[in-house]
Amino acid sequence: MSMNPIKTIEWVADRKGHLLPGYIRLVDQTRLPGKLVFLEIRKLPPLWRAIKNLQVRGAPAIGIAAALGVAAAVQNSRAATGAALAAQAERAADYLATSRPTAVNLFWALTRMRRCARAGQRLVPSELKMRLLREALAILNEDIAMCRAIGRHGARLLKNGQTVLTHCNAGGLATSQFGTALAPVYLAREQGKRLKVYADETRPLLQGARLTAWELMRAGIEVTLICDNMAAQVMKERRIDLVMVGADRIAANGDSANKIGTYGLAMLAKAHRIPFYVLAPSSTFDLKLATGAAIPIEERGADEITQGFGKRTAPENVKVYAPAFDVTPARLITAIICERGILKPPFGRAIKMALAN
Amino acid sequence: MSMNPIKTIEWVADRKGHLLPGYIRLVDQTRLPGKLVFLEIRKLPPLWRAIKNLQVRGAPAIGIAAALGVAAAVQNSRAATGAALAAQAERAADYLATSRPTAVNLFWALTRMRRCARAGQRLVPSELKMRLLREALAILNEDIAMCRAIGRHGARLLKNGQTVLTHCNAGGLATSQFGTALAPVYLAREQGKRLKVYADETRPLLQGARLTAWELMRAGIEVTLICDNMAAQVMKERRIDLVMVGADRIAANGDSANKIGTYGLAMLAKAHRIPFYVLAPSSTFDLKLATGAAIPIEERGADEITQGFGKRTAPENVKVYAPAFDVTPARLITAIICERGILKPPFGRAIKMALAN
After folding, report:
1. CB distance A207 to A216 below 8 Å
2. Which of A89-98, A165-174, A244-253, B100-109 is predicted with the least confidence, judged by mean pLDDT?
3. pLDDT, tens digit (0-9, with 9 covering 90-100), for A132-170
4. Sequence-separated (6 or more) residues with CB below 8 Å from residue B343
5. CATH H-level superfamily of A9-147
6. Rounded-to-integer distance, Cα B177 and Cα B190, Å
7. Cα separation of B196 and B189, whole Å?
8. Does A1 have pLDDT greater than 50?
9. Is A248 a catalytic residue?
């Protein structure tokens, strides 16, 4: 029996054998790593706040939460007609869309829910309620299948006893359960391989220390935490066999945007002849962008660096530069793994073929 | 008029025109960057505590503080003979040696003070008191001269308008005043050049954020704080003209040990074709070590990483790897600057010649 990673988000039925009524069960990520607290959400406002306040984070997880949120919002509606219920569902979707204004997966999931509502206007309300929940659960299950597929492909790259270095959190906590960059580690373990992970703490927000280390420990996988600036030394000491990271956006030529620090890590991996893999769903490919040069780099506030943990650690009014992402050029990437397979250079062709399938 | 960096440590005479009695004036570095607090120390126990508790830190600064501490310890002695006073001074030195058991400069400075005491046993006590203070002030002044010499040599590498990236704090706060890695910036400014600095925050202990950013701001030099993992991106954006770092120990072939993260930074500089300079006093060369492979890497406690910000930021009992230093191989170093000049590769020969002068 394998120890699966924690379910970040799921739908729990109140009565056995009936999906409705029920509630959304979320890991409150703002309480990690100190405490594992589950939120039980049955209504719209607390879900909006959970997304807004980063209690649920990670693009796929946010999308799933929002879809389930639409279903939860109307589950106790007394609407007399399907059309009235559909209108309520659309309003719920509009409201949730205001929670994190830049989250692509959020809008994508809400669009699917709106379409489902409109298509079911002629149904009786109880049937439409169930149709909406099933659509949200489909989004959840597709995410699980996507993560497991990335994991299966990626696990082929992992040999028993190897050690993976990862950056930030592209783990189960960012998705429904298995994550992207960490999925191969979980799947390889299911296959009986023993693997170790080094996790960069990932300044400024320490997702590696707070989330990646936590979810791997909880799943019984050996993880060692390091500061970002220790990665080169750890590579030099031959502690790392390969690097696996996620991606936020991948250009047509394979240039990959991810959390700040990824680009430097890729350079260090290259210099130490360590394979460097990017793992992400195929929805991350953005063929409108010819190269990574077209990817805008978001800048974050100074406070995350100067007083990230409730305590001032830099002088008042110090000038800060805080790019939130960087772009790793395709030439530093050994392979890109998506749910459709392992893509190898030249990436331009491989990405086009993968998306065409 | 130039704005000099702050005097980290000095001797202040109580009465004008007389060096004795007086006190040691120290910047309390544990209060930075929040508050600039000076300690006024006239006796042995508070000086011992100041060293122990890192209120004064940085190898050269610790050595100077200890030497002045021996002079301060005996300044009000009622010893009847020079021999009795010398014995008191030696006991003071023995006591101070227990404050930071691994600080090489501390032992070196105390050995000089003991020698001075023994050589002055025949003097009347008041003369020996003055002799001891002058020896301590000589150590202080030699440090200032050494830092200024490193600064002068290093400043030749800096052109008006350029930007320097530095790591950790090898600035004025680690020495009497001008520092090593930062000395060229201060000296170039005296020469009328305008320079900018990017400072890595330097996890886990954040010396870059807390100390380097503070001392440069206070001296009126434009400084921008970044997280360690942003250095590669900052280089890619061509914001950096050269890198200047300190060193704790340099092997006969030029391999240089310094704060963790320096090695990775050197690799990134190389990959971006940015010159990488190591600046340190010639006392840092250790010819007994053929290469950096012989330099032991100290490992630090997990707490600095898991709760470095006064708050737990990683799971309880998470495994941590925390090398405190790394070794930058000579091939990644453009030049080593010591008080005797700019040493260029091949370093083996250049170091030998510099020490022979």
Report:
1. no
2. B100-109
3. 999 999 999 999 999 999 999 999 999 999 999 999 999
4. B254, B335, B336, B337, B350, B351, B354
5. translation initiation factor eif-2b, domain 1 (1.20.120.420)
6. 14
7. 10
8. no
9. yes
Enumerate residues 6+ apart whose C-beta is below 8 A from A109.
Answer: A62, A63, A64, A66, A67, A139
Distance from CA of A305 to the nearest CA of B (A): 7
Chain B residues touching A310 at Cβ < 8 A: 309-311
Nearest Cα residue in chain A from B204: A227
User: Of A228, A268, A314, which is closest to B267 when you measure between CB atoms?
Assistant: A268
SS percent in chain A: helix, strand, coil, step 5: 45, 15, 40
Each domain of chain A, given as residue ranges in start order, spans: 9-147, 151-356
Residue of A203, A297, A311 with shortest CB distance to B310: A311
| Interface pTM, i.e. ipTM | 0.93
Q: With contacts defined as CB-CB under 8 Å, which chain A residues touch B322?
A: 226-227, 230
Q: At what angle do helices B82-96 and B59-74 cross, to 10 degrees?
A: 150
How far is the C-alpha of B270 from the C-alpha of B232, rounded, in Å?
11
Q: Which residue has the tokens 């040696």?
A: B97
Which of B227, B234, B240, B316 to substitute to test the interface with A, most A CBs within 10 Å? B227
Residues B248, B325 contacting (CB under 8 angstroms): yes
Which CATH class, in words, describes the domain spanning A151-356? alpha beta
CA dihedral for B224, B227, B230, B235, sign (positive or negative)? positive
